[in-house]
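Exercise: predict the fold of this chain.
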Amino acid sequence: MSATDRKAFEISLDRIGRGDATPAEAAAAIRKALTSEPSLTERVYDVLRDVTWRALTSRSFGGELSQWFEVVRHASALAASRNAGGMSERMRAFADLISQSARFAELQPLEEVLSRKHTKSLLSAIAGAGKAVSNIALMSILGLRESNLSRVTGALQGTGLIERSSSGKEASFALTDLGRRMARKLDIAIHDPATDREWWHEAPFPLAVWAASGAPVGANAAFYRLTRSKASDVLPPLADWKITIAKMSRDELMTSNDTWGLQIDDTTWIQFTEAVMPDGGLCLLGSDVSVAMKARSEAVLALKIAKEAEARARRELADAQDRLVAYQSANSHVRDEIMSVAARSNRRVRDTIDVWAHTAENQIVPRELQAVEKDLGAMQVAVRNLMGPIDVVTEGKSASGWIDPNRVVTEAMNTARHLDPTIHATASFGKVPKIRVAVSSLRMVLSHMVIIGTRHGAYDFRGALKGSNLVTTVRVKSPDEHAQLTPFEAVSSSGLGYCRAIVETNGGAFEVRETGSGSDTMIVFSWPVEGTDPHGGRIKFGPPAKGNKSRRRPVRGVVD
């Protein structure tokens, strides 16, 4: 057997399992499957199991139970003839169960079937149509899937309220006499098939029609259900209907000139759209838009919350800006005061050293006094270069000017070693001349990298001109306590991440890389250069120089 034939058999068996096949169709399909493809015996067993289960739980086949008994019994016999004895006996057990179910089908309480979900809605839809309604139309009207519709129609068939007819692959359902009597008892409007042939009853959505004069023409059952009409078969004049629907609504929303929505209760919104027909009559299409309106309400609420959060953020930003201005003023004042005090103190110390050195009885200057001079000088450099104005970051580039990166790094390295003699770092900027850049910004970054970086593992600084950029590379030894952090997190935790904002604000690039060693991190940042001075020198740094006995202040960098 080809794969196509086998697929066709499987599709036929699936229809039987879903309850969409008549006993005659099922008998033919099962007989052909067992005769042509014995390997499908187990699949046939599964299908008959589903048929039997449906018969036992919902009596979904009504008067056809005896026919289904014959289908299952015949399948059992075919299986036995194919040497599938085990399957044959199990199928025979299904036949016995169906036979027993048929004897008790009439004992199923009608009240229980009518109390099930969607039962009355389905009866109303069929009664409102006044004729047989296809399963496709019922799925559209009730909003059910095919499997759920099959369960509801099966239960109603089992109680004799509806009957099923087939046309090709499409099934249709109509009320039986018992079904009509029950519909009247439940106050469900039933339209006479002889007169109920208007086009709006065929529509699978709520629809009502009025004449040009406003006189009622008709509406389908879905429209009466949507509008919760007390008289489910009487359409009032247009003006009266609008007054009635307005009284029962809590809120109204006009979405266009011909479309409006009404809120019926806390959770239900219905929408109507008008259309003028060629004869001047009015056609009104209704729909339940509760889900869409709920989403709209949630979006409006979310927008309101977002606007409140934005207003709060703006207030906080304004407050932060006010505090920043105050901090800038205080920072500038403190910076100037510290540098002034340090400069005065340094001058006093130098004057004292000069007096001391030129006094005959005091030819040797105490080392402690020299150390104070160095510390004060280092403090001046640190304060000037590290306590820069905040607007370097917040307001963009600083003023352009000429700067010697070699001298800045030299000064910063000496300052770092004065502040912490245990620092062992190297630096080499090759043949980097004086360059024209945003002076205060670059000075702050280079000084921050050296003075602060060396305290957090930075041990090698290299710079070179590449095109129109000064490219600086810094190697940082990651401390053990930061082993679990990513490279950028480790750099940020060491305080060097502050430089990134300044670099990017000035049009540069800042990147953190892993070196592959597992213990080092590399920072590479480029700084745009506006021009160069070809007469600049170069600088190289090595290990700290040994102590100099001269009274002159030692210089540990060599500028060519």
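Check your answer against the key: The first strand starts at residue 133 and ends at 134.
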